[in-house]
Amino acid sequence: MSRNSLYLRFVRQILPSPFSIAVILTLVTFILALVFTERPENSGSTYSMVILGYWEIGFWELLEFTMQMALILILGHALALTSFVNNIIDRFTIYCNTSAKAAFTISLLTILVSMINWGLCLVFGAIFARKVAERAKAHGWKMNYPLLGAAGYSGMMCFHGGFSGSAPLAVASKDHFLIQEIGQIGIGQTLLATPNIITFVLLLIIVPSVFYLLGKRGHDTEINAVFKKETHHVGEKSQGAERIDNSKIAAIVLGGIICFIALRKIWVSPSLVGLSFIDLNYINFFFFGLAVLLHGSFAKFLSAIEEAIGGSAGIIIQFPLYAGIMGIMTYSGLGALFSQGFMEISNATTLPIFTFFSAAIVNIFVPSGGGQWVVQGPIVTEAAQNLGASIPKTIMALSYGDQLTNMLQPFWALPLLGITKLKAKDILPYSFLIMLVGMAIFLISLLLF
């Protein structure tokens, strides 16, 4: 047995399910908060009960976000069932007749899409990987499907340097919560700065190349995932109100109006800064209209939704657990305490490096770019001011660290797992290797620039 095979077997044996990982992280966070954070004055109960209270508060704070993520999976999946999207992806899948070529192509295009929006790249990568697997299964080709899934997930290690990066976009606004401390920092100093552009180009070249080499190593097997085909139960003779459900005109009108509203925002966007409106709500709104329009009837659209909705179970049940972890990290001060420890051993030269590593570790417990910026932002920017370090560079260091450990944390992989029918233990051995590659790229960028 080769070393590569031993590595894959070892990682898959020690990795529990994403739900178990969330439970373990909850327990670890609880213990860390109990040991290292200070008990509030005049607390009428034991501190362990106070921490449990923080967990309960946080448990319900991501309900809106949970719904957004469930919708992006369901609508993205439904969109993938349309003939139009199938035809487009098929144009790319014809080049994906081996694991190496497929992994390279999926990773390359997913990283490019990540520059536009992280939610879009996540759904795109998942759909692309699934379509390649469906084509391989139809032709009887053997492929390394877990590697393709990891390639579809690779954009989540690159997105925070693009136009949906939470921290860079936050400080570019005129009313962000640190405006009095650091002022307004435009994306010209962060996202569009030469160091970040060079970093992205390196990611775009090196990461797909590594996937290509991994694909060359073998481990191709029969595609065992079960993919349901599009099944629309539309009556041949619709009567009465049923005609509305099967009406192409109704679907074109509703879908067309929604798509027009969404696209109009891009047309009137004055600059690249204006792309900050492309958030989860925008993507879900656009996907909704596009799916209705492309399916051609409400009946076909709803049939696709019924097929896609099963994959959202992991999101609905696991996101509240991570929200609880975030509640403990935020309200107990554990997240701030952790970041402060790194800042105390930093100087002007090492601050971006320590910020990078602290953000990478905190992201495992608080896998949310916006939430992490709220926790760590005030600390790292104050440290940059006190040490005379570059604030824009420190912000990008935090962004790089936040996205790096997405390759280790299955939180964001849940939509992809739902669409591809893969398991976390299938893709994480490969995404972990890509994380090491990304770490090297980010560190070199922070040291040289």
Order of helices and strands: HHHHHHHHHHHHHHHHHHHHHH
Helices and strands: which structural class? Answer: mainly alpha
DSSP, total strands: 0
Given as residue ranges, the uncertain stretches (5+ residues, pLDDT < 50) are 231-235
> Helix tally?
22
Q: Label the overall shape.
A: globular
What would you say this structure looks like, in words?
By secondary structure, the protein is mainly α. Helix 6 packs antiparallel against helix 7 (118-139), helix 7 runs antiparallel to helix 8 (145-153) and helix 17 packs antiparallel against helix 18 (351-365). It has 22 helices and no strands. Helices cover 70% and strands 0% of the residues. It has one domain (18-31, 47-223, 244-448).
Q: Could you give a quick summary of the protein structure above?
A:
The protein is mostly helical and 449 residues long.
Q: What key attributes describe this structure?
A:
449 residues, mainly alpha, 70% helix, globular
Structural topology:
Elements: H1 3-14, H2 18-36, H3 47-59, H4 63-80, H5 83-93, H6 99-114, H7 118-139, H8 145-153, H9 166-172, H10 179-182, H11 194-216, H12 242-245, H13 248-267, H14 280-295, H15 298-308, H16 313-331, H17 334-344, H18 351-365, H19 369-387, H20 391-404, H21 414-420, H22 424-448
Helix pairs in contact: 1-22, 2-16, 3-16, 4-7, 4-14, 4-15, 4-16, 4-21, 5-7, 6-7, 6-8, 6-11, 7-8, 7-21, 8-22, 11-22, 13-14, 17-18, 17-19, 18-19, 18-20, 19-20, 20-22
